[in-house]
Design brief:
Elements: H1 7-21, E1 26-32, H2 44-48, E2 53-58, H3 65-77, E3 82-84, H4 92-113, E4 121-127, H5 133-141, E5 149-150, E6 159-163, E7 167-170, E8 174-175, H6 183-192, H7 202-216, H8 218-225, H9 234-244, H10 256-268
Parallel strand pairs: 1-2, 1-4, 2-3, 4-7, 4-8
Antiparallel strand pairs: 5-6, 6-7
This protein binds guanosine-5'-triphosphate and magnesium ion (MG).
Magnesium ion binds at residues 133-134.
Length: 286
């Protein structure tokens, strides 16, 4: 799905999610573990206000485990517990359920204090495009498809997935726009696929990605494209990759565009191994 986030779209998304928020107890915020800061939505906090939140760094199977650990500690010092997840993995269901129940505990206790009968905690998944929201819903719902319940009256047409006895998950995730203002963040979002290919300058994005790999993961680069890859300069790297992969246009000129697509594809598929693009210490692509 191609979403261009014009101001009108942002206002609508905000309105829709603001409306949904009224019946939500716990928010599951998804970010990309490879870019935990850049993949934050700029107004999410405003939208969820004081509601309990579970911060998920998703696609952690693609991220550098050491850097992810550093992020975890960084978030912890800010008072936020985050969970590293691979939303495709079966085990994520149990792990996330545990986190949601723990985040929702104060709500359950409040109900109890007031003598209210506990109902299920209602949750929603929020995140920028392509971060794995639908995949996570499927994983959470696995084996419970039959239990998907409509709740007319409360939210017309809204479907809920029942997860165990105490949890319900809204089956449509909230899609939020990514950061556009910060060019550095935008480049990283483009590299991971959160911003559609049509709206970014592949030359800049791939050059930045190659420089980043050369600086932090040079052996991955050599393993993927060849021992002799010249890692000092992005243009030279691209040329080397194009030649090695036979990216040629009719007449024999080098097809740089094709080489760029190969690099992007390789990164998105995790073919460089586990790579993070930003760390809490601030390193990212040059
Ligand atoms: N390696 C890996 N890939 C994932 C993970 N979660 C999702 N993906 C992949 O990422 C891509 C996007 O996943 P979706 O679940 O469609 O993402 P989404 O957030 O629903 O995307 P939109 O609906 O476009 O906003 C798919 O190719 C998934 O297979 C994960 O934890 N690890
Ligand atoms: Mg989706």
């Amino acid at each position: 799905m191609i979403i261009q986030w014009y101001p009108g779209h942002m206002a609508k998304a905000k309105r829709v999610i603001g409306e949904q928020m009224k019946i939500i107890d716990v928010v599951i915020e998804l970010r990309d573990a490879r870019i935990p800061a850049a993949s934050e939505n700029p107004v999410l906090r405003e939208l969820i206000q004081q509601k309990p939140r579970v911060l998920v760094l998703n696609k952690s199977d693609l991220a550098d485990p050491f850097v992810s650990e550093a992020w975890k500690q960084q978030f912890a010092t800010e008072g936020t517990e985050c969970v590293l997840l691979d939303s495709k993995a079966k085990s994520s269901r149990q792990e996330l359920t545990r986190r949601i129940m723990s985040a929702g505990r104060p709500i359950l206790e409040r109900w109890e204090r007031r003598g209210l009968r506990a109902r299920s905690l209602r949750t929603i998944i929020l995140g920028i495009p392509n971060v794995g929201k639908s995949t996570l819903i499927n994983t959470m719902a696995r084996g419970y498809v039959a239990a998907i319940a409509d709740r007319p009256g409360k939210t017309r047409g809204q479907q809920w997935v029942k997860i165990g006895k105490q949890l319900e998950l809204m089956d449509t995730p909230g899609v939020l726009w990514p950061k556009f203002d910060d060019p550095q963040a935008a480049r990283m979002l483009a590299a991971t696929g959160a911003i559609v290919d049509e709206v970014f300058d592949a030359e800049e994005v791939v050059a930045g990605l190659l420089r980043h790999l050369a600086e932090h993961y040079p052996s991955a680069l050599r393993q993927r494209y060849g021992e002799e890859i010249p890692t000092e300069e992005a243009a030279a790297m691209l040329l080397y990759i194009a030649q090695r992969r036979g990216c040629l246009l009719p007449g024999g000129t080098v097809d740089k565009e094709k080489a760029r697509r190969i690099v992007l594809q390789d990164f998105r598929q995790g073919r460089f191994g586990r790579v993070s693009l930003e760390s809490p210490e601030g390193w990212n692509e040059a």
